Amino acid sequence: MKKSLLTLLALTAVAVTPLQANAAGAADTCKGCHNGSVAPTVDALKSKFKTADALVAGAKASKNDMMKPMQADEAKLKAAAAEIFK
Question: Do the beta carbons of residue 9 and residue 62 sit within 8 Å?
Answer without folding.
Answer: no
